[in-house]
């Protein structure tokens, strides 16, 4: 007997994938890996040092909230929009030969961030939060409960033969007596042997 293999990605697996994606963006924000510059979108609006500080802080906070599962839908959408807009500004304003592949990489990572919550239902989305998951009582009983003992009434046992006889007599009473002419004649094929 062979069983079909079943593949199931449970909540722990989804949390690990989300933590890996969030740690990559966190490493980008503090400068451990090369890639997207989080300050590009703020550079035209403020001095370079302030833009770098604001962009890195915003990406770090969004990544940390994504990893912790805090307001997962809102944070994932905000991080995806932030990464997409920074990548679009950085790579598509002045197109150079390698910029399309960097934009494509950032777009794929933005889609991965959005996929971290898309397959989750309401209860699974609450369980996805690493920090804030608490079991909640769905329905509470408002009235007092007084336990009582239930005893079955003792019933005398009858022998099985008496039950069979009663069933047979009940079956005979159910049959209507008919005329002999109404019953078909039974041919005994073994009578001449």
From TrEMBL:
Segments crossing the lipid bilayer: 12-36, 56-84
Keywords of this entry: Membrane, Transmembrane, Transmembrane helix
Q: Which domain of life is it from?
A: Bacteria
Q: Does the keyword Transmembrane helix apply?
A: yes
List the protein's name. Answer: DoxX protein
């Amino acid at each position: 007997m062979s069983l079909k293999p079943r593949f199931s990605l449970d909540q722990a697996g989804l949390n690990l994938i989300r933590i890996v994606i969030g740690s990559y963006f966190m490493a980008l924000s503090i400068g451990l890996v090369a890639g997207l510059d989080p300050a590009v979108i703020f550079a035209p609006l403020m001095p370079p040092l302030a833009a770098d500080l604001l962009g890195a802080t915003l990406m770090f906070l969004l990544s940390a909230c994504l990893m912790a599962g805090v307001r997962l839908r809102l944070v994932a959408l905000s991080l995806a929009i932030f990464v997409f807009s920074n990548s679009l500004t950085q790579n598509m304003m002045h197109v150079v030969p390698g910029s399309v592949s960097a934009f494509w990489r950032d777009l794929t990572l933005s889609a991965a961030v959005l996929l971290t919550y898309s397959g989750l239902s309401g209860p699974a989305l609450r369980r996805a939060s690493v920090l804030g998951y608490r079991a909640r009582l769905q329905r509470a009983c408002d009235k007092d409960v007084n336990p009582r003992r239930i005893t079955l009434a003792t019933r005398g046992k009858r022998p099985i033969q008496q039950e069979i006889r009663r069933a047979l007599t009940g079956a005979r009473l159910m049959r209507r007596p008919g005329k002999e002419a109404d019953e078909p004649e039974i041919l005994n094929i073994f009578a001449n042997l």
